[in-house]
Amino acid sequence: MNYKYWIAFSSIEQIDSRFIKRLYDYFGDVEKAFNCNLKELENIDGLSVKKAENFIKLRDKVDVDKVFANVETKGINFLTLEDDNYPRMLKNIENPPAVLYYKGKLFDCNLDKTLAIVGSRKASTNSRNNLRKIISGLGNTDICIVSGLASGIDTVAHTAAIENNLKTIGVIASGFDYIYPTQNKTLYENIENGYGAVVTEYYPSFEPIKFRFPQRNRIVSGLSYGTLVAEAGIQSGALITANLTLEQGRELMCIPGEISNPNTQGIYKLLKTGATMVTESNDILEALNWEVKKEVQTQLTLPTLTPDEEKIYEYVKIEERGVDELLTLTELNLDNLLMNLTTMELKGIIKQVGGDRYKAF
Predict the structure, then answer these.
(1) Torsion angles phi and psi, residue 48, rounded to 5
(2) Does one domain contain both 172 and 276?
(3) Are the C-beta atoms of 64 and 5 separated by less than 8 Å?
(4) Distance between CA atoms of residues 166 and 110, nearest Å
(5) Sign of torsion over alpha carbons 198, 192, 346, 208
(6) What is the spatial distance between Cα 139 and Cα 294, in angstroms, rounded to a whole number?
(7) What's the CA gap between 236 and 312, in Å, rounded?
(8) What does DSSP assign to residue 47?
(9) In terms of domains, do 150 and 258 share one?
(10) If you write DSSP's letter for every residue of 62-111 in order, what string do you get?
């Protein structure tokens, strides 16, 4: 299979998956599509001469072997529309990614039980807590949580999935040369190193430019059987994803919130127009007609701990401890302690139980 031509197409920043698929469908062969001439492009109904000429000009600047080697060297996996194991739900949307790049263990995730979770980047404490409660009710099952690895609700969704022994897929709006937001670096790494996969349609060097975030949203909903909106204002990316969910014929669900919060205006608009209300995890299972079997966890298998993490764990595994107590007991400085507490939360080793107190799972 001529994978390098799919990657070469994908490396051209000024064209999109819709254009690539159009050429592939017309020529029936990705190498022929990539190496076509202007006269052949002019025979494609509805393709403007200007767009055809622009593609030829950009195509001629691409070093096919070099762009392919760049992906391989960086250890990035990928799937193309020609691959039999390309995610079925995503392939069925109106504009699927021509190439889906990924890191981590995508096929350890159950792609037949995928739930998208979206919401505000500036999420309220109430919505964060509600979402954690609902995800905990899905814990230790084969459900996979899909979200956008942004701050706010996305971060809560991925982190709560990891804490509750669920696989998770993060869909990013850039190539793998970038981590956005930078504070989610550890979360990226945890997902890639055993908790699921990070995926993108963008060639590694593509930056997280503003217009790519709404484009990314169709993949979040497209990978999923249903979308749960945790918090959304009237004009928000979460509402864009909600509309995409309906366009894709998938189930739309919402968690109700405080009516005085501006970020719940979008939620109540969706609920009034027929979205399913979710107040507990069983509401999701009923809406999607899923039966799940919970895994019985007899013993928690801890990931490898650093020496500082071991110090902290020794004190929280028996009883919950506050930050001030841990500062005294571990003799770590405050910055180091807080950094390790955050990392251990993301790894699913400990959890915050109110205020600044922590306990082991």
Answers:
(1) -70, 150
(2) yes
(3) yes
(4) 10
(5) negative
(6) 7
(7) 39
(8) -
(9) yes
(10) --HHHHHHHHHHTT-EEEETT-TTS-HHHHTSSS--SEEEEEE-GGGS-T
What are φ and ψ of residue 156, in 5° steps?
-60, -45
**Domain check: are 171 and 235 in the same one?**
yes
Q: Do 49 and 113 belong together in one domain?
A: no
- How many beta carbons lie within 10 A of that of residue 197, not counting itself? 22
* Cβ pair 309, 338 in contact under 8 A: no
Q: Indicate if 158 and 269 belong to the same structural domain.
A: yes
Residue type, 342: T
CB atoms within 10 A of CB 332: 18
Q: Give the orientation angle of helix 237-247 with respect to helix 212-222, to 10 degrees.
A: 40
Range of the domain at 36: 3-73
- Claim to verify: residue 146 and residue 262 sit in the same structural domain: yes
What's the token pair of residue 54?
Answer: 């622009």
The whole-model pTM stands at 0.81
Report the CATH number at residue 224. 3.40.50.450
Helices (H), 206-333: 212-222, 237-247, 265-272, 281-288, 307-316, 323-330
Mean pLDDT by 10 residues, the chain (361 residues): 93 96 96 96 92 96 97 96 96 96 97 96 90 95 97 95 96 97 94 95 97 95 97 86 93 92 89 94 97 63 81 84 89 89 85 81 74
**Same domain, residue pair 254 and 220:** yes
Q: In what order do the strands lie in the sheet with 357-360?
A: 321-322, 357-360, 350-352
Contact of 108 with 167, CB cutoff 8 Å: yes
Radius of gyration for the alpha carbons in the chain, expressed in angstroms and rounded = 22
Q: Angle, nearest 10°, between helix axes 153-163 and 334-346?
A: 70
Structure tokens at 50: 């200007």
Q: How many domains does the chain have?
A: 3
Strands 114-119 and 357-360 come out as: unpaired
